Amino acid sequence: MADPTSISCEHLTFSYPGAAELALSDVSLKIPPGQYVGVVGPNGGGKSTLVRLLNGLLTADSGRVQVAGLDPATEPFEVRRLVGVLFQNPDNGLVAPFVEDDVAFGLENLGVERAEMRERVREAIASVGLAGYERREPHTLSGGEKQRVALAGLLAVRPEVLLLDEPTAMLDAAGREEVLSRVRDLAGSRTVLHVTHHLQELFDADRVLVLNGGRLAADTTPLELFSDAELLRENRLVLPTVPKLAADLGLPFCRTPEELAAAVARRSRDGVQAR
């Protein structure tokens, strides 16, 4: 990377024309390369605005933004070669009649040589678990499959940074898990900024940023966030079902029903042994 800091924001402030409140207010953060960072908070907190500022779709009122050492406001095309953005609705990003053509679309715009393009398309499709789908028509795919095609199109361009703006919001449970499993596979190989309303999607994140009212309310780890009832309440965040049950039962943090069942069993055994 051009800079050891993958994403940097310094005193970032932005307001939409005519809005009474700032969309982002004095936000500062640094994200090193390869880190997986979640972004959560109530509606209107500034999450999607942050994504658009990082990709150069919006320009800050004040403060500084850098992605891989570049300023998205003054070098938007250079930044977009390094940054891939996955939005909520996969249908909005599908433009070609066949999967392989859609995945190749970004490479064609970059003028990548034909033989290299074919290889990168093949690798990207395989990386999202869709090998064999090359000649499928996107409109015949499920929501999760469509979103994976969109992700493959980003990966083919080989971005250094992935911005995921609620990529599972329009998917059912199966589709959500399809996409999340691929995101988890990418963790560490690229910088990932993942905006979501579903806290359970961030169990594997390195950090979680909490945005509320345009301000950075917290920069913490998933475990610390899930264990802080006051922070969750202040920012209108809902604890996932399994961790909530564990907390209600006075058990350590649990991610899955299996972990919860094992914790309950251990406490039962300990109780029997103590008698």
Short description:
The chain is an alpha/beta fold and 275 residues long. It contains ten helices and nine strands.
Overall shape = globular
Radius of gyration: 20 Å
**Major β-sheet, in short?**
6 strands, mixed
State mean pLDDT (0 to 100 scale): 91
What's the end-to-end separation, in Å? 60 Å
Strand order of the largest sheet: 5-6-7-3-8-9
Global structural class: alpha/beta
The proportion of strand residues reads 15-25%
- The CATH architecture category of the largest domain equals 3-Layer(aba) Sandwich
Number of E-state strands: 9
Under CATH, the homologous superfamily of the largest domain reads P-loop containing nucleotide triphosphate hydrolases
Elements, N to C (H/E): EEEHEHEHHHEHEEEHHHH
Helix content: 25-40%
What does this structure look like?
The protein has 275 residues and is of the alpha/beta class. The protein contains ten helices and nine strands. Helix 6 links the parallel strand 6 (161-165) and strand 7 (191-195). The model has no long low-confidence stretch (mean pLDDT 91). It is globular. The longest helix is centred in the C-terminal third of the chain and has 18 residues, at 257-274. The protein has a six-stranded mixed sheet with strand order 5-6-7-3-8-9, sandwiched between helices. A three-stranded antiparallel sheet has the order 2-1-4, with helices on one face. It has two domains: 7-91 and 159-235, Rossmann fold (3-Layer(aba) Sandwich), CATH 3.40.50; 240-275, no CATH class. Helix 3 (99-110) packs across helix 4 (114-127) and helix 4 packs across helix 5 (143-156).
